[in-house]
Amino acid sequence: MSQRLLVGIDLSLKYNEVCLLSDPGHTLAQRRFRHNWPGFQALVSWLRTTYQAGGYAELDIAAEATGLMWFHLFYHLAHTPSWPMPTGIAICSTHGVFRASSTPWRSGISVTRKMLR
Questions:
Q1: Among candidates 103, 116, 109, which has minimal Cα distance to 8?
Q2: Are the C-beta atoms of residues 20 and 50 closer than 8 Å to each other?
Q3: Residue 40's domain is classified under what CATH number?
Q4: 55/15 Cα distance (integer angstroms)
Q5: Which residues contact 117 (CB under 8 A, 6 or more apart)?
C-alpha cells in the first residue's frame, strides 16, 4: 500500500478527538486522547503503530486553528525523536465546519476531509 494516512484532530481544552481516514476518504478509526502529555504520548504511539501496520507511505495531519491550542501539539509532533513517518502538517481555518455537526468525530472527519480538497 502506498497511500497517505490522513489524520484530523478536533482540539479542545480537555480532549483531542482524532479521526483517521484513508487517502480516498474512508474512515479507518476514531479515538479520543486527553489534551496533556500522557495523551500526546498515547496519540504518537497509536499513529506510529497504525502507520507501520498499514504500510502507508505518508502521514498528513490537520487540525483546526483554535486559538493557540494547536501549537503545543504540533510543536511536539514536529520535534518527536524517532518519528519514522514523512509527515505533512496543516492548520485549517474551519469556521462553519464545526457548527454543522455536534458530534466530535464528525468534526475530526470534516477537518481531515478538508485536506483532500
A1: 109
A2: yes
A3: 3.30.420.140
A4: 28
A5: none
In total, how many domains does the chain have?
1
* End-to-end CA separation in angstroms for the chain: 22
> pLDDT, tens digit, for every residue of 71-85?
888 888 877 776 666
Q: Rounding to the nearest 10 degrees, give the CA dihedral for residues 64, 68, 74, 79.
A: 170
With 60 as the cut, is the pLDDT of residue 52 above it? Answer: yes
Residue 105, Cβ density class (10 Å: 0-12 exposed, 13-18 middle, ≥19 buried): middle
Cell of 78: 514536529
**pLDDT tens for residues 21-45?**
987 778 999 999 999 999 999 999 9
The domain of 25 spans: 4-116
